[in-house]
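Hi, here's the filled form for the chain we discussed.

Project: internal
Contact: R.S.
Residues: 155
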Amino acid sequence: MSESAGNAGFYFDDLHVGMRFETGTHTVTEDQIREFATRFDPQPFHLDDALARTSVFGGLAASGWHTAAITMRLMVDLGIPAGGLIGTGCEVSWPRPTRPGDTLRVMSEVMEVVPSRSRNDRGTVVMRSETRNQNDEIVQQLTARMVAFCRPAVG
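And the returned structure, exactly as it came back:
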């Protein structure tokens, strides 16, 4: 079962171990791949289809960091995190490339929720996420540890 934050988003105090989320989608275009690569990861297999065909990817592929940025955007659009979060570390892998025309979505599960011992307005959350394409193939696996903030006190 997937959760939806509506417009409010999810705060630390809304999260519990085993909670699952599924985001909306984003379709990746060739132009987006090239624009991101030109600015941040200018390698031939992200920029030039002919050169990419002769690479290990066998065709144009998005930068893994581009896939990570799309993942973050989809999570923020879902409402994770409400009030912002601070990443404190992660483990990420890209088992298959993101291609032009791929439609990505993120499926996540809360693995750990630990209130801060020194600050009652926050805690640490560990979330495992898989970014999948339209064929349900995993293009990114991410386990992230982050500081998430509690719902602000009213008045």
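Let me know if anything looks off before we file it.
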